[in-house]
Amino acid sequence: MEKVFKNMTSAIILPSVLFGMTACTAITGHNSIDNEGDSRRVGNVLWNNQADPDLNGLLETTVDSNETRLVFVRKNDNDPEQTSANVSINDRYQVSLHPGNYTVVNSCVGTNQLSAHATGFKDNDLLAEQKDYQLVGGQTYFFYVDMDENGQGNLDQITTESALPLLENKRYQTHQISRVVPNCPAPTATPTPPPIVQPTLPALAEKITIELEVLFDTDKAIVKPSYYNEISEVADFMSQYPNTVVTIEGHTDSRASDSYNQALSQRRVDAVKAVLITQFGVAPDRLSAIGYGESRPRASNDTVEGRQLNRRVVAVIEERSNN
Question: What does the pLDDT look like over 226-235, one tens digit per residue?
C-alpha cells in the first residue's frame, strides 16, 4: 500500500508543480495569486482556510433530539499534503481534514458509517476506512483522526475529557463545503396510552335472602347432587355482583336437644358452603356459614308442616364492607 500511495502521490504532485509554474507565468499581469495567513485569493475570489470560532459556545448549543453532533479533530503532524483526511459520514463527504484542524457537523441518530481516507488515493471511496457507530440523539460525539505518512487513516471515538485538551490548540477548517445532509426525520412522540378506566362494579343496594330448597336425610349433612341447581342460584347471583359476600344460615326443628340441633345445622351449612367452593368456584373468603339449630323457628314445631318450614337453609347476600 505504501508503494502504491507514494507512486500515486508523486504522479499527482509533479504535474501539479509544473502546472502551477506555468499557470503563474500565464496569470502574471492578469489574475494574481495571493496566499497570506489564513486567506487565499485567486483574482477576485477570496476565502479563508481556517477560523477560530467560539468552540465552547458551539458545544453548549442544544442538539435536537433527532440529530447528533460529531466533532472530528486531527493532531499537528508533518505528514505530506496528500495525507489530508477525507472525512465522510454515511457515504457523504464532510471535509478534507488537514493536520491541526477540526470540523463539526450534525448527523442523524442511529447507525452512522464514518470514514477517514487519504486524499492522495484519489479514488473517491468515501467508505474505504468505514467504522460503524451507534449514536444517540441530542448528544455530542468526538472522533480522533490520525493519518500516517503512507496515507493509512485511523478514526476512533474518544471521550469528551480526552477531546477538549486536543481541541485547545486546533483551528476550525472552513474552506470545505460539507455534503452531509442530516435530513433527519422529526422525533415521533410516544403516544400517551389512554387512562385505564376501571369498570364500575354493580353494587347491591340491600341484603338479598335466597331460601334454598335443599333437603337432607335424617341426621345427615350430605348435599345430594339433585340440589346443586338450587345452590347454583346463589353462585350466579354472586357472579353478577362481584363485591358481595354470602352468609349461609342453617336451621332445624325442635326435635332432639339444642346442642345436637345446633351441631347438625352447622354441618349442613358447611356442606352447602363446600359445594359453592368446589362445584361453582366461589372464593372461600366470600363465604361464611352459621348453624343456628332450633333457635330461630319461623313456624310452630307442634305440627308436621311447621317443623318442615323450620328445617331450612338460607343464603343471605350483601355488599362487602369496605372496612
Answer: 999 999 999 9
CATH topology for 208-319 is 60s Ribosomal Protein L30; Chain: A; (3.30.1330)
* CATH no. of 2-6+50-173: 2.60.40
Q: Return all residues near 141 (Cβ < 8 A) that are at least 6 apart.
A: 68, 69, 70, 71, 133, 135, 157
| Separation CA 153–CA 66 (nearest Å) | 29
Q: Per residue in 290-299, pLDDT tens?
A: 999 999 998 9
Alpha-carbon distance of 71 to 93, in angstroms, equals 14
Distance in angstroms (rounded) separating the CA atoms of residues 35 and 50: 13
